[in-house]
Amino acid sequence: MRVRFEEPMRAVVITRPRPKAFRIYYNQAAPTGTSQLRLVNWYDSDNLGLQRTPLLPSAASVYSNFEGRVFRVPVFHSPPWFWVSYSNESSAVSQPTSDESAEEFEHMEYNEVNVTGGRDHRLLLLLAQHMNFQFVYIEAPGRTQGSLRAPAENGDTNDSFTGGIGLLQSGLADFFLGDVGLSWERRKAIEFSFFTLADSGAFATHAPRRLNEALAIMRPFKLDIWPYLILTIVFSGPIFYGIIALPHKWRRRQVALDVEQLGELCIYMAYIKEITPCVLLMRSRRPRRTPPQSEMPPQLFERCIWFTLRLFLKQSCHELYHDYRAKFLTIVYWIAATYVLADVYSAQLTSQFARPAHEAPINTLQRLQFVMQQDGYRLYVEKESSSLEMLENGTELFRQLYALMRQQQPDDHRAFLIDSVEAGIKLIADGRENKAVLGGRETLYFNIQQYGAKNFQLSQKLYTRYSAVAVQIGCPFLDSLNDVLMHLFEGGILDKMTTAEYEAQARMMTKDQAQQSKELAAAENANTKSNEAKAQPQHAQDNEMISALNLRMLQGAFIALAVGSLTAALMLLLELCYRRLNLAQSLRRRRLRWLRRWRRLQLLQLFQMLRQLSVRIFAQNLG
Fold it and tell me: Among 3.30.70.20, 1.10.10.350, 3.40.190.10, 2.60.120.20, what is the CATH number of 358-466?
């Protein structure tokens, strides 16, 4: 690549017109940018040496006043830094391809554009007034800041840039403003002044939407609490059964008694064993008395399960067992069900009905990576911007996010690039799918104000980024420019200019809203009330922070009631079917029993008839 060094090239010529006399000519003695040698100093030994000290004039003194010099400034539409109005004939200037040299910039035609406002436009006007120069806006190639060209087919690396940075690198432009971020790759091609904006990287997504109200009854407790709550209710019944059943199990064991009762007299067998072994043998032959054992209630396990379920569900239930251990555990269960679960649940449920719940905000890189993998979010970034360079050259999460962005559309790996941050905010405002836009925090904040800040979610600060005025390498007036910018920064002028741009945009939004309200009032007078309800934006209800309780919020309770009723009806049908099967089996058994009895009766009757017949025959034979 051929880099043009016209003004940055320093040339000093020393001549000797006569003995003991020298003349010094210097090409950077004029701020107009002409590369002509100019007499700046001379030496005469007869006249006390040098005429001026130092030998060459300083750049701060030469370039403090440009004497009306005209600079070419590439620019493109990037609010709030520049508001550019393109004419119908203006179109994005094509950029040289990767195999073309930078000399193609010289043969390209550039259109002058009309800048209507912007923070950096005001800054450039202030610099022009203070340093006495003029400027002409030209359209940046591709309407982008610029990025490194792709390597050539033979594998040779190319350090040339496209866009506005390419114009500076080739020497065809003098300034480049408009949120031009600093990076290591850009510093090798151009130089930067003192920063004009201390910004941070961020991304914007849609505002957290309201969650489904049908699941409101399940939302008071988090997902990590519900399993423990369910396990507590499930194991409460078996624990209650164990507290009651274990004493019965222990009492059934044959335990050697150390004390025997003879009326009111207590005999300690340990003492008897020592003094009277013979009596011990006699006593051992007698049957030992065991205390009476209480019987275990029938179907205890099932009754314990249903007792705990009714207790936790706040249903009426009677005391299951009169043991003091069971009473104490019943009190503990009742306190947990009443004051811990029921009150906390009802309080949180009431608060969620009064202030509807919203989904978790996406404000960190980890959260953004999760929703891109699980929920299909798409991340967009402005083409040829410093944010794109951060993704391409970053590590860890940035590298993973860049890989996910390239996988958003398998057929086109560059589909995540957008023309500007404003275009990305428009994509989010459409709301057709889940999207996120990465860029400078100030740029994102300004653009979301146009569509309503309550409709967007701005992330946390990801990394620090600085924007500055880009100039050519070896720019001789860089020190003078830095001196003016530092004074503006120390005086708070840069912050005031940014705030003034925001206020101007707010006034414009107020005027637009007033005009929209007038048009809406006229439309309301012409339309009916039904049309008014249809014309009302649907998202207005979603943005209400506090709303009155209505039946729609209780639809989850009705759904649970319907599910419970259907389950009860299904259980009833199963019981009826089961009872019908049992009834059929019992009828079949009875039928078989009656058949057997009838057969027996028939056999008995037949046997009696045969017996009577045989008796008659025998009597006739005897007669």
Answer: 3.40.190.10
pTM of the entire structure? 0.66
Structure tokens belonging to residue 133: 């120069």
CB atoms within 10 A of CB 45: 10
Same fold, 1-150+157-196+468-490 and 358-466: yes
Whole-angstrom Cα distance, residue 417 to residue 438?
Answer: 10
Q: Cα(461)–Cα(198) distance, rounded to whole angstroms?
A: 12
List C-alpha distances in Å: 27 to 8, 9, 44, 66. 10, 8, 22, 15
Residues 6+ apart with CB under 8 A from 526: none
CA 355 – CA 546 distance, rounded (Å): 5
Tens of pLDDT along 577-597?
887 777 777 778 888 888 888
CB of 14 within 8 A of CB of 48? no
Half-sphere CA count of 412, side-chain side, radius 13 A: 4
Angle formed by the axes of helices 300-312 and 324-335, nearest 10°? 30
Q: Is the pLDDT of residue 419 over 80?
A: yes
Query: Which residues lie closer than 8 Å to 420 by C-beta, 6 or more apart?
Result: 77, 78, 382
The Cα 161–Cα 184 span in angstroms is 13
At residue 251 the predicted structure's pLDDT band, cuts being 50, 70 and 90, is low
Closest CA to 193 of 445, 486, 413: 486
| Domain ranges for the chain | 1-150+157-196+468-490, 215-290+302-354, 358-466
CA distance 99 to 158: 9
DSSP calls for 293-320: PPPPPTTHHHHHHHHHHHHHTT------
- As a whole number of angstroms, the distance between CA 560 and CA 5 comes to 78
User: CB atoms < 10 A from the CB of 478, how many?
Assistant: 20
Residue 26 bridge partners (DSSP): 12, 38
Tokens of residue 85, six digits: 């109005």
Q: Examine residue 80 and say whether the peptide bond preceding it is cis (omega within 30 degrees of 0).
A: yes
Asked if the bond preceding 537 is cis, omega within 30° of 0, the reply is no
Residues 318-372: tens digit of each pLDDT? 888 888 888 888 888 888 888 888 888 788 777 777 777 777 888 888 999 998 9
Q: Are residues 368 and 459 in contact, defined by beta-carbon separation less than 8 angstroms?
A: yes
Mention every residue, 6+ apart, whose C-beta is less than 8 A from residue 389: 147, 181, 183, 185
The number of residues making up the chain comes to 623
Q: Could you tell me the pLDDT band of residue 126, with boundaries at 50, 70 and 90? A: very high
Q: In the CATH scheme, what is the homologous superfamily, with its name and number, of domain 1-150+157-196+468-490?
A: Periplasmic binding protein-like II (3.40.190.10)
The first and second tokens of residue 247, run together, are 């004493």
- Spell 451-460 as b/e; 16+ CB within 10 A means b: eeeebbbbbe
pLDDT in tens, 421-430: 888 888 888 8
Residue 436, helix vs strand vs coil: strand
